[in-house]
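Retry 2 of 3 after timeout on previous attempt. Resubmitting C-alpha cells to design endpoint.
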C-alpha cells in the first residue's frame, strides 16, 4: 500500500511539475486531471490516505476514475463551450464598438458635407445677387442698353424673373 500511495503521490507531483496550466492556456486552467483506471486502486489509496485528494488539490491536480470520467469530460466540454461563447461575445462587443465609432465618424463627415453645401449655397446666392440684384451686373448691362449701347443680344430676358437662377447667355459667335 505504501508503494501504491507513493506512486500516486509521485505521479501527482510529476503532473504538477509539468505546469500545464501555464503552458497551455494562460490564466485559463486551474488544474489538470489525473486518471486512475482502476477504481478499486483509487478507493484503496483513499482509505489508506484520507488527505490524498487534498494533496492532489494543493498541487492543482484533480483525480478522475472510470466512474466519473464521462461526467467530468461533459463538464469540461460545457466549460469550453462557455469559453468559446464568451470569446465570441467579446468579439461581437468589440466589433460593435468599432462599428459605432465608424458610424459616428461617418455622421461627422456628413455634417461636414452639409456645412460645405450650405456654404456653397450661400456663395451661390451671394454671386447671384451680385449678378442680378438691384445693384447687380445685369442691371448695369440693362442700363447700358438703355443708354444706347448696341449689342446683338439683350439682358432683358434675364430680368423677367428675379428669383430664378440666372442662365448666362451663350458667348457671341464670331463671324469670321
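Retry 2 succeeded. Sequence:
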Amino acid at each position: 500500500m505504501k508503494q501504491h500511495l507513493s506512486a500516486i503521490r509521485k505521479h501527482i507531483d510529476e503532473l504538477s511539475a509539468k505546469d500545464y496550466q501555464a503552458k497551455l492556456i494562460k490564466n485559463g486552467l486551474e488544474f489538470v486531471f489525473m486518471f486512475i483506471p482502476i477504481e478499486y486502486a483509487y478507493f484503496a489509496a483513499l482509505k489508506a490516505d484520507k488527505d490524498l485528494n487534498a494533496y492532489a488539490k494543493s498541487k492543482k491536480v484533480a483525480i478522475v476514475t472510470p466512474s466519473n470520467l464521462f461526467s467530468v469530460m461533459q463538464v469540461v466540454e460545457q466549460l469550453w463551450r462557455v469559453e468559446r461563447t464568451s470569446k465570441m461575445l467579446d468579439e461581437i462587443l468589440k466589433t460593435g464598438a468599432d462599428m459605432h465609432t465608424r458610424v459616428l465618424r461617418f455622421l461627422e463627415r456628413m455634417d461636414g458635407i452639409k456645412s460645405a453645401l450650405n456654404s456653397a449655397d450661400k456663395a451661390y446666392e451671394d454671386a447671384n445677387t451680385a449678378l442680378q440684384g438691384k445693384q447687380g451686373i445685369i442691371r448695369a448691362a440693362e442700363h447700358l442698353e438703355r443708354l444706347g449701347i448696341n449689342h446683338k443680344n439683350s439682358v432683358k430676358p434675364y430680368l423677367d424673373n428675379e428669383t430664378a437662377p440666372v442662365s448666362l447667355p451663350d458667348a457671341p459667335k464670331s463671324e469670321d
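Attempt log closed. Residues 162-166 have pLDDT under 50 and may be disordered.
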